[in-house]
Amino acid sequence: MTRRALGALRESLGALAREAGLGDPDLIFFRRWEEVLRGEFPASVLRGRKVAHEAFHRFEFPVRLSHRPALPVGLALGVSAGLAEGLLVRPEEAGRSGADEILLTRLLTPDLAVHFGRVRGILAERGGLLSHLAILARERGVPVVMDPAAFGRLRPGDRVRLDGSAGTVITVL
Fold it and tell me: Under CATH, domain 77-171 is a member of which superfamily?
């Protein structure tokens, strides 16, 4: 179905909902075909279906699987095992210093895999065990730690040691 046809369908269903006197025109989208064919508008039933639909779409995976963990402040999660030490660098600066580097990123995204050959490890603010990058990092042996508190205390240029097995990040002097 084309976008134009879908728009026309939504518009005609909205008009039908107004004619039927439904207070919330979106309720029309929770009718079953047999109700449409019979011309029934059971508003209380439709409201119940809408509430159930919205509750289902608010579902979130548990913390260890999600990219939005609710970790207590100061708690880090080891996402990919291994030890690494180096200077913290942002993705756009990776590989420029010639020194051992640890990638500092807000989110574990698949596009960061291009840096695997240039960095010793990755420190992220958000991510999860099942994120695409975490899986790739485990396959390639790149240590990854997710630490929401790290962005408050660490800056690019800091030298750190991260342990992807224990989920720890230590500043090295």
Answer: Phosphohistidine domain (3.50.30.10)
